[in-house]
Design a protein that fits this description.
It is an enzyme of class 3 (hydrolase). InterPro entries: ConA-like_dom_sf, GH11/12, GH11_AS_1, GH11_dom, Glyco_hydro_11. Keywords: Carbohydrate metabolism, Glycosidase, Hydrolase, Lectin, Polysaccharide degradation, Signal, Xylan degradation. With about 230 residues, the chain is mainly beta. It has a single domain, classed as Sandwich (Jelly Rolls), CATH 2.60.120.180. Helix content is about 5%, strand content about 50%. It has 2 helices and 13 strands, in the order αβββββββββββαββ. The strands form 2 sheets. The protein has an 8-stranded mixed β-sheet, covered by helices on one side. It has a 5-stranded antiparallel β-sheet with strand order 2-3-13-5-11. The radius of gyration is 16 Å and the shape is globular. The N and C termini lie far apart (about 35 Å).
């Protein structure tokens, strides 16, 4: 496990402007399972997703207009991902606001996938404990008008993806000062990743998600209410 600069103290380690949500936001999909699926696109759903695995109490619902709510209390082996977003993903200004009160491992993050190459990526906005499942490699940091982020990569071997069970790379941008609400200009992160040698492929979907998961004896709990535009 690498030593993180601003993460060294950790263990192991939304915004309804206007009257209507954009047409690219949808509340039609609420896909829920109790075991890992074989195809992550089915698991994640698309524009709105709610996926769970293992034990624990994970309750998330789409409220319409780009808003979703979650409450969770995990146990060993449990986890969930829920969020609202866009398909395809890509360069855009994602505005969000709301509340996020979390304990244990998990994130409030913009989460997405690309193909060719197959990349799973996170832009992490807030968290309690970051407890990566795989070792992270630091790739640098960057600062712009929205804040300072540290960059990491990791690799997952023979895990579920939007292309079935595959080995793929994960990209991470992690804020040095946590926030809940603001604008995420995704293109700025894509550019910073590219300069660090982190090359994305063709964009599939992306969501502003709440995620919680158990890691050893560390268990997640909390609540969130997030609106995305």
């Amino acid at each position: 496990m690498v030593t993180f600069s601003f993460l060294s103290a950790l263990v192991l380690a939304a915004l309804p402007y206007g009257l209507a949500a954009p047409s690219s936001l949808t509340s039609l999909i609420n896909h829920e399972t109790v075991a890992p699926p074989t195809h992550l696109e089915s698991r994640q759903g698309g524009y709105y997703s709610f996926w769970t695995e293992g034990g624990g109490s994970f309750k998330c619902s789409q409220q319409g207009g780009g808003k979703y709510t979650c409450s969770w209390s995990g146990q060993k082996g449990g986890g969930f991902v829920a969020g609202t977003g866009f398909k395809p993903g890509g360069s855009r200004a994602v505005k969000y606001s709301g509340t996020y009160d979390a304990k244990g491992p998990g994130y409030l993050a913009l989460y997405g996938w690309t193909r060719n190459p197959l990349i799973e990526y996170y832009i992490i906005e807030s968290y309690d404990i970051i407890a990566p499942g795989e070792p992270w490699t630091k790739k640098g940091n960057f600062t712009f008008e929205e804040g300072t982020y540290e960059l990491y990569t990791s690799q997952r071997v023979n895990k579920p993806s939007i292309e079935g069970t595959r080995t793929f790379t994960q990209f991470w941008s992690v804020r040095t000062e946590k926030r809940v609400g603001g604008t995420i200009t995704t293109g700025k992160h894509y550019d910073a990743w590219s300069k660090a040698g982190m090359k994305l492929g063709n964009h599939d979907y992306m969501i502003l998600c709440t995620e919680g998961f158990a890691n050893g004896t560390l268990l997640p709990s909390g609540s969130s209410t997030i609106t995305v535009s």
